[in-house]
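Cross-check.
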Amino acid sequence: MKSFIETTIISVATAALFIAGPVFSEDQHHEKKIEAMSEGAQRYFRNGWQEGKIETAILFNESLNSFKIDVEVNDGVAVLVGDVSSGIEKDLAEEIALSVDGVESLDNQLVVKSDAERIKPTTEEDSFLGSVEDASISAQAKMKLLANEYIEGMDINVGTKGHVVTLEGQVKTNAEKDLAEKIVENIDSVVMVKNELKVVSS
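Predicted model, tokenized:
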């Protein structure tokens, strides 16, 4: 199974081939390379080529999170491992894989998980990505609170962990407290808001 970095490199490289517009079509280019190889090398190259095409198709599909799906192909049999948020996404990934030339069958091991389950870090890589996403959410929340004329954004502290945002600090009214919560709830990827703001009348 490929690592995140290896998968990304293969996907980007494959995408570059699509964009570059080579003299031969991709299939012609592919076949010419295979013909010049030994049997073992042919199998290895064909498997890698098919993996790259599947990974690239998944990468550019807006309905799928390519970072959560690993692809492996062995002699025409594709294996999908990872997690998706719905059965529809699982079926979509399967259709994409089966549409690639040379893929004859598929072992779909994708697991359907809820958003709350998907955001739990399971590896150092996932933990790092989760931290980056949390920092981005906190920054967005702070900017939106500061930009709202009805909220004293400077008096509100924002913290995010696992896509769960915690608001702390002081506001002047219950309406201001509720508004701050609604603003943060509307940010993409926010799973829940813990509103610990205290109302302190002046």
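The beta strands are 69-74, 77-84, 105-112, 156-161, 164-171, 192-199. The two ends are 60 Å apart (CA to CA). Passed to J.P. for a second look.
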